[in-house]
Structure formats: C-alpha cells, structure tokens
Fold Deoxyribodipyrimidine photolyase PhrB-like protein.
Amino acid sequence: MKNKVRVFWFRRDMRLEDNVGLYHALSGVFSVVPLFIFDKNILNELQEDDARISFIFEQLQKMRSHLQDHYGSSIATYHSTPEEAFHELLKDFEVEAVYTNRDYEPYAHQRDSKINTLLANQGIEFHDFKDQVIFEKTEVEKNDGGMYLVFTPYMRQWKKEFENIDLKTFPSEDHLDNTYKNSMLPDVSLSDMGFVKSSIQVPDYNITKDLLEHYEDTRNIPSIEGTSRLSPYLRFGLIGYRKLIQAALSVKNETFLNELIWREFYKAILYNHPKTQNSAFKPKYDRIEWRNDENEFEKWKKGKTGYPIVDAGMRQLNETGWMHNRLRMVVGSFLCKHLLIDWRWGEAYFAEKLLDYEMSSNVGGWQWVAGSGVDAAPYFRIFNPYSQTDRFDKDKKYIMKWIPELNTDRYPKPMVDHKIARERCLETYKEAVKS
C-alpha cells in the first residue's frame, strides 16, 4: 500500500528556511516528500561544465545532507522532464497535493500548466505561492488599472503599496520534522546527467551593513568589491527574498532597495508581455537593419574588440560567469550600437554564460541598451567606452586585471571608430523608427 504524502517541488527557492510553499506543505497532517527535477528541457541546451548546474547540485546536496542528518529525510531528485518525474513519483506515492512557489517566465508558466493538468486528471491538487517577490503580476498598477511601463513611477507605487502590507516570514525550518522519513529517495549525480564539475566557483555574497550603507558610492566601480554579489543566490532562491528586503530597509540608503524593485519591475513586464522574450516591446525597433557580422560578434564575445573597458567586461564574464552591472550596460550598448548586432544575440550569449542569468532582468537590460524596451534609454543615448572608462575605471585597475597585454602589440586596435560607429548607429535607428 502506497504512503499518502504531500509533495513540495523546489525550483527557484533552493532553501529550507522562510520558504512560503514549503511552509504551507509542511503545515498539514501528511508528511512531505521534497522534490527537485533537473529538467531535461533546460539542461539539454547546456554545456557539460555549466557552472550553474554545479552550483545548484552543490546546494541540493547540502539540503539533502541536512534533511538526512537531522530528520531522516531527503530530497527525491530526478533528471527528466517534469511530466516524466511526476509519473515516476506517482508510482511510488499516493499524493494528496503538490505545493510549490510560483515562477513567472514563459516556459515556467507553460510547464506548470501542464503539470497542473496532469495532477488534476489524477484528482491531485496543485498549490502555488508567491515567494520570490513582494508584488507579482499586476499587483502594482496605475490608478486606472494599467501597468506601469516606466520604472520610477512603478517604484514609487511599489513603496506606497509596501506600506500597507505585513512583511511576515514563513518559518518552514521549524517544521522539517514533517518531511517524509526516508533518506533513500531517488537521487542523481552530475555524471548521471552528463555533466562535470565546473571550475568556476561562486563567491560568497555580502549584505553587511557597511556595504549597504555605501552601496550607492561603490556599486559603479568595477575594480572594487562594491556590490553584494547576491545575484546567483537570489536567482536560485538560496537566500530568502524577505530577508533581503528587511536588510535593505535597515539602512537609510535606498539604492539597494531600488535595485530589488527593478528586479520585480522586469518580472512583471515579462509576465504580462511574454513576447518581449524574443520581440521588441516597441515593435518599430524590430525594423532595425542589424548588420549582424558574425566575425565581429566573435571578437566581442572573446573580448578582442580593441576597446579595453568592453574587452575587460567580456573576459570577466567568460572566466568567472559574472560581470559587473556597469559593464553589462557598456558591453551591451557596444554590441547593439557600435556594431549594430541584434540585442537578441547578446541576450542569448549572456544566457549561456551568466551564473545569475534571469530571463526577465536580462531581456529587460538588453532591451534597455538597445532602446527597444519599456523603460529604455533613448536610441540616441550611446555609451562612449572611453568616457565610461574615465568615470568608472580612470586608473585602469579593472582593465589591467583582465587585459594584462594592454599597451603591447598583442592587444588589438579598435575594431571600429567610435565617432563613425555612433553616426552609423544614429542613421540606422532613425531610419527604422521614423513614422
């Protein structure tokens, strides 16, 4: 006879504490089988040494060990499609209900709809919860009910709405004794999935009071550790989002809080306008005659454009899986504006390389530099790599770290003249967006 259980499905919430969906799953009479699925629909597109898979796998093992050592439980882990994993799980258990936290990307929405239907056909309830944001979907709207398409008024309304809520936590960690008592649940290894351990290590994050208080002064200087390095942990939910909001509120500097609100803004945009994943929010920008020179794209990817600030950023990305946010804007603008290469090419390369890749923020950021998004920089705003260097890396500490051959014959000449490229860009964009 099968054991009757609840299932909690981990996705972008890889933690046992202050986890909304897990808390609700554990708050019942049936024990909970924790579940994680290495989704073949996603993994099949990745390289065998993808650092994100190593990162997720290591966190999963820490969670498994904690549950095994303290509660005699574990995490049922599958390498399959979500549909196949649930078919396997339903063979072994009589599932009363499945609990999870909501995800807002187009693929996730389609996936959850399929699983909901699969479970409903078996008479199994599917419960999802808000966990990775404070406000989701259309919860921050204009007075007339329309969605904000510019960040600043969205941010102001977000803060106004926030004053009316109770930011409570959900102590799932206090109820883990209600996890299913079996430490031999299905498991997979990296090699089982065709992956190897990545050489890239994810550095620890920093949300000390000192960093948050000085965040506005340090966050644009790539040569120092002036950012929190939170993004990979936030992307996979290794740290509770409410904890971050509380940390941001604990200091007077609101710049860090605004960065978190930017994240919610882009999530809301992608959820309500899923076509922006592949199409310009402003359709006229899809009329741009991109040059899309593959040889120039390769030079950009490898950090061999002859523009030191651009090349340093790309080399940092290739070697570490991370790039300073200021540099993301610089290299993105250079690709779209100087080289006239489609922003979707850059977005796809970032998706391949970034440890903290999050579709909503990445698409939003790329459409921002391309000028095609909701709250975009005007198309005539073209980042000047030289002035960006003077402002944010004047002594070239950051550049020299990543380009030791600078000032030698081994470093290439600029692949395009800034002034000529700027004029070419303006003419191309003006032709595309004219009425």
Notes: The domain at 1-130 is CATH 3.40.50.620 (Rossmann fold). The mean pLDDT is 95. The chain has three domains: 1-130, 132-168+205-272, 277-429. The longest strand covers residues 93-101.
